[in-house]
Amino acid sequence: MLEIQSKAIRIEEHGGPEVLQLVTVAVPAPQNNEVTIRQKAIGLNFIDTYFRTGLYKQPLPHGLGSEAAGVVEAVGADVRHLKVGDRVAYGQSPIGAYAEVRNVPAHQVVKIPRGVSFEEAAALMLKGLTVQYLFRQTYRLQGNETILFHAAAGGVGLIACQWARALGVKLIGTASSPEKAALAKENGAWEVIDYSRENVVERVLELTGGKKVPVVYDGVGKDTWLASLDCLQPRGLMVSFGNASGPVDGVNLGILAAKGSLYVTRPTLGTHVTTYAKLKAAADELFGLVAKKQIQVRIGQRFSLADAGAAHVALTGRKTTGATVFTLD
Fold first, then answer.
1. Transmembrane ranges (predicted)?
2. Radius of gyration over every alpha carbon of the chain, rounded to an integer in angstroms
3. 290 Cβ contact list (under 8 Å, min separation 6)
C-alpha cells in the first residue's frame, strides 16, 4: 500500500482550543500488527482536553483523540481477526484519532455489530467501555446497590444511568442544571441532585436514609473530592476516574481513616483491556446491551474536524449533553 494523505488535527504547543491545527499528514502502510482505518466518525472525550493543555504529558507535536469508527482499508501481515472492508471501532488507542485515516494496533480494534452505526460506535467505545470497567470490574455491581455517579448527564454519565438501570442498581446522579438532571432521569437515574441548587452530601444522606453509598464514581476530580468522601459508607470505595475540574492532589491519607477506613482507586481503561481478549469481552458486554436496547447512545452534538476548537470550547464550557462526535464524509 502506498502512503495515504490524510487531514488530521495536530498541536505544536499546549494551550487552549486555538492550538488545534488541521493539517495534512502522510499515513504509511500498516505495520505487521496494525490496520489502516478510513474513519467515519470520531469521539470527543474530556481526556482529549487534558492532552491539549498538557495536564497529561505527550511529546510535542502530537495529535489528539483515542476513539473512532470506520472501515478497514489495509491489514498488517500478522493480523488475523480483521480484514479489508470490516466495519470497526476502537476506544483505547495511541493518541491521534482526530484524523481522516490512521493506523491503529489491531489488538485495540473490534468489529462493529450489525445495527450499530459508525457514529454510535464512535460515541460508545471509550465511554461505554469506561462504564463497563467501572461497573463490572473496578467495583462489580451485583444489583440492588445504591451508588453515586457524578456528571450523570455527560457522555459517560448517560451510559452509566442506562447500565445501572439494566443491572437493577439505584444510581444517584449529579448534574449542573434542572435540564441536565431531567435528562439523566430519562436515561435511568434513580434520583438526580442538581448541585447548583442542592447540597450533594445532605441529599445523599436523605436519599439513602442516612446509610450513604458503598461506592462513588467520580470523573469530576478536584471540585467533588471531599463531598464524594462524605457520601461513602465506612470502608466504601471512592473511584476517581477523571479530572474534569482539575486533578486531585495533596491528598492526606489520614482523611480516609477519619471518614471511615475508606478505599480510593484511580483506575484507567487501558489497564482493564490490556489484551484483545479482554477488550473483546468488554465490548461484547457493551454491544450486547445495545442490541437489547438497554443502552442507547445519545449524540448531542456533531462537529467537523475543522471545528475541533469549537467542540473543545463546548465540552469544557459544560454546554454539551450526551456524546459529541466529529463526522467525516
1. none
2. 20
3. 113, 116, 120, 124, 128, 296, 297
| Structural domains in the chain, sorted by start | 4-124+273-327 (3.90.180.10), 143-265 (3.40.50.720)
CA distance 50 to 173: 24
* pTM attached to this predicted model: 0.88
H or E segment to which residue 316 belongs = helix 308-316
Query: What b/e string do you get for 20-36 counting C-beta neighbours within 10 Å, with b at 16 or more?
Result: bebeebebeebeeebbb
User: How far from 134 is each of 50, 82, 139, 176, 294, CA to CA, in Å?
Assistant: 20, 28, 6, 22, 17
Q: Locate the DSSP E strands across 199-310.
A: 213-218, 232-240, 263-265, 299-303
**How many Cα atoms within 13 Å fall on the side-chain side of residue 74?**
19
Whether the CB-CB separation of 300 and 322 falls below 8 Å is answered with yes
- The identity of residue 97, as a single letter, is A
113 grid coordinates? 455489530
